[in-house]
Design goal:
Layout (H helix, E strand, L loop, with lengths): L11 H6 L7 E2 L9 E10 L1 E13 L4 E14 H7 L9 E7 L3 E4 L2 E4 L1 E6 L6 E8 H12 L6 H21 L1 H6 L7 E2 L15 H8 L4 E4 L10 E2 L9 H4 L24 E6 H13 L15 E3 L8 E6 L2 E6 H8 L9 E6 L4 E6 L8 E2 H9 L4 H8 L4 E4 L2
Parallel strand pairs: 1-20, 2-10, 12-19
Antiparallel strand pairs: 2-9, 3-4, 3-5, 3-6, 5-8, 6-7, 8-9, 11-20, 13-18, 14-15, 15-16, 17-18
Helix pairs in contact: 3-4, 3-6, 4-6, 4-10, 4-11
Protein name: Sporulation stage II protein D amidase enhancer LytB N-terminal domain-containing protein
Organism: Halobacteriovorax marinus
Keywords: Signal
């Protein structure tokens, strides 16, 4: 990976059953040069302080360029600016761009490579900060956040390919802008909603190497089409398809890969409880959202009986009074959140002594795509990143985008 000069430089049956990807073939669909990615790294900030050496600042409203020799600290009072110009800026507007001859710009104590953009937030009372940088530099900084930079190289390489594929799909489809219904000044954001990216000091020799050795590699469908490539922390023994979690089918995800390689890593199990009142509120919400098929309106107090359940099932079967209901497990996580339901891999039963519904589960995350702790385990056992990706993405192939 090109860098500016001063930057520091499992069991036998399972093994035999998994096919590895063939040699990387040219990415025929696009064949473009390495792109630059725009990542929202700060959101709804009242004030933004940018510093650096030999800063170059461009004010886009008047197309004014100014260079500041030496060390410079620039403050943007976004709240007061937004208050004065609320009527003028009815949608997010690019205010300023800053970069440095050194290649590094500091925002709120974090050093970022590339260019930093200051954009008005949707309500114009604050600012968003967007980093524009080379996609490969973005991937190197991300690896220490989405995984651990001390993990085996092959696990990091698998993560690099998955994250690059996810990011490139967002970029090529302009998905954020389509979702918002307006022009977005970024391709994706640094959060669990998309991917958690890192700053310059999150980049290490290992993350650089994992990025360099997979440069430009992405996962595509057999016809060479980019699709979202998902990953999560720990499957807990079961990997799901997108349609089982979000209700929409994604090309390439036609199988449920074998999970469970993560069992010896991380927290083994988690337990939670839900009161009758909260459970009833959940059922009413699910009915209102038409997530359960029940014509009779849920109201009043009736006995709720949970039928025998296990983590292997993808739905909860229950009786509300005399009415039989089937509720997909991911709906619980959507309503109650990630704290109460860390994963979609759980069983639910009534605890008579505590007068509450007992939830027992394992895993962390939505459970779709690559299990990161599973990738760690497989890499520790000597699996290559190609073999790891082939296991978790059997409906995709590895190709080189640039």
């Amino acid at each position: 990976m090109h860098r500016i000069c001063f930057l520091f430089s499992i069991y036998l049956s399972t093994v035999l059953s998994v096919q590895t990807f063939a040699e990387i073939t040219p990415y025929l669909v696009t064949g473009f040069a390495e792109p630059k990615i725009r990542v929202r790294v700060g959101q709804s900030l009242k004030k933004v302080i940018v510093s650096g050496t030999d800063l170059k600042r461009t004010f886009h409203l008047g197309n004014k360029l100014k260079v500041f020799p030496g060390r410079k600290r620039i403050k943007f009072n976004c709240d007061s600016f937004g208050h004065k110009n609320r009527k003028k800026f009815k949608k997010p507007t690019l205010l300023a761009s800053l970069n440095s001859m050194t290649g590094l710009v500091t925002v709120s104590g974090k050093k970022y490579m590339g260019t930093v953009d200051i954009v008005t937030s949707p309500k114009s009372d604050s600012c968003d900060v967007v980093q524009e940088t080379r996609l490969e530099d973005y991937i190197s900084g991300l690896l220490a956040k989405e995984m651990n930079s001390s993990w085996p190289l092959e696990a990091l390489k698998a993560q690099a390919v998955a994250a690059r594929s996810y990011a490139l799909h967002k970029m090529k489809t302009n998905q954020v802008s389509k979702t918002l219904g307006r022009k977005a000044h970024y391709h994706l954001e640094s959060s669990e909603k998309h991917q958690v990216s890192g700053s310059f000091f999150d980049m290490t020799r290992s993350t650089d190497l994992a990025t360099t050795e997979t440069q430009g590699e992405v996962l595509v469908t057999p016809k060479g089409k980019l699709t979202p490539i998902f990953f999560h922390a720990k499957c807990g023994g079961k990997i799901l398809r997108p349609d089982q979690v979000w209700g929409n089918t994604v090309i390439g995800y036609h199988k449920n890969p074998k999970g469970g390689h993560c069992i010896g890593h991380g927290k083994k199990k988690w337990r939670k409880k839900i009161s009758y009142k909260r459970f009833l509120s959940f059922l009413k919400w699910a009915q209102k959202k038409k997530l359960i098929n029940l014509k009779t309106k849920i109201s009043g107090k009736k006995k709720i009986k949970i039928l025998a359940d296990s983590k292997k099932r993808n739905s909860i079967r229950l009786y509300w009074g005399d009415l039989h209901l089937v509720v997909a497990k991911p709906i619980f996580r959507r309503y109650f959140g990630r704290v109460l339901f860390p994963s979609n891999n759980f069983s639910l039963n009534w605890n008579d002594s505590k007068r509450a519904f007992a939830v027992s589960g394992s895993g962390l995350g939505h459970g779709v795509g690559m299990c990161q702790l599973g990738a760690l385990d497989l890499a520790q056992k000597g699996w290559s990143y190609k073999k790891i990706l082939a296991l978790y993405f059997p409906g995709h192939k590895l190709e080189k985008a640039y």
